[in-house]
Amino acid sequence: MIVTTKKLFEAAYGKYAIGAYNINNLEQTVGLFRGNLQSKAPFIIQISKGARSYTDKLLLEGLIRSADEVFPEAIFAVHLDHGDEEAAMDCIESGFYSSVMIDASHEDFETNIAITKRVVEAAHAKGVVVEAELGQLGGVEEHVKVDEADAKLTDPRQAKEFVDRTGCDSLAVAIGTSHGAFKFSGSQSLHFDVLAAIQKVLPGFPLVMHGSSSVPQDEVKRINEAGGKIKGAKGVDATQFRKAATLGVTKVNIDTDGRLVWTRVHREFFRDHPEVFDLRKPGEVFMQAYADFIAEKNDYLGSTGHLDEVRELVSK
Ligand code: G3H
Ligand code: 13P
Ligand code: ZN
Q: How many whole angstroms from 46 Cα to the centroid of ligand 1?
């Protein structure tokens, strides 16, 4: 069942965070649904602009609609990840997305507000909810490159004004994470002080943490042992998700870790089975590995076991 992120956040706020996972293809879709049902967790499917154009946005939508039928117990939101105004409007018009992100965080404060406001007005008119972003993460996003050194943490004083003036439904905040597999050069960690200050001015308001992959070191080691060359990769400590949830983080975005699972499975598979050329063989291994990975993430987020309670809430 497709619901808005707003509904999911009502259930989770202050207690646990909902996993927001990016998908691009059939195997990820199946692994995602299986993993969330395995752990009885509500979840968010994220679709980036890149994912929409990888094959065709309609094919990806079709996959999700079919998965909704194949896995009728699943409860999830369908969310555009890092949309610009054009993509956000297209998703709102499509009638398929329950939630969009407008990411104008690279613009100045006033321009970010103006763009976000336009998207919020169009979205709310169609019952779609909106995530906006204030502050800048380090790392590489689809349409914006920001050096880690230039990453700007969210200013708590601006956060309230931004939410009040835009009417957005949730806010992505920059609290020290960045996208991709190379998040920290040193032993940096999350800026809980900044998060607490934001929650203080926006009590009860859902916050979103992007760039939340953990880049597990054993995964990186296995990839490298199977022929990969990923050096110095480092991510967020997943044991910090629960604390972030108590401080208002209700959505945690994870993409890179799923890509690492894909890379590990396929590198090891072809190393260990050089005679195989049936694409379904590694596909089967990947779907199970991806499901297990999702279930493990949900344990860290605290969303495991909350599906029935969310079902009750959405049926009211
Ligand atoms: O934050 C970006 C997500 O990891 C999506 O990545 O734009 O390469 O699909 P992508
Ligand atoms: P990671 O690169 O840490 O997985 O972050 C994904 C993300 O923020 C998607 O919006
Ligand atoms: Zn992101």
A: 9
CA distance linking residue 173 with residue 99, whole number of Å: 17
Q: Which atom of ligand 1 is nearest to 48's Cα?
A: 9
The ligand 2 atom at the shortest distance from the C-alpha of residue 259 is 4
Predicted structure pTM score? 0.96
Reply yes or no on whether the pLDDT at 149 is more than 80. Answer: no
At residue 75, the 3 state secondary structure works out as coil
Can you give the C-alpha Rg of the chain in angstroms? 19
CA dihedral 245, 170, 43, 233 (to 10 degrees): -70
Report the catalytic residues.
Answer: 81
**For the chain, domain boundaries:** 5-314
pLDDT of 302 over the 70 cut: yes
Residue 52 has pLDDT above 70, yes or no: yes
CATH topology of domain 5-314: TIM Barrel (3.20.20)
Q: Which residues line ligand 2 (CB under 6 A)?
A: 22, 81-82, 179-180, 210-213, 253-257
Mean pLDDT within 74-97: 98
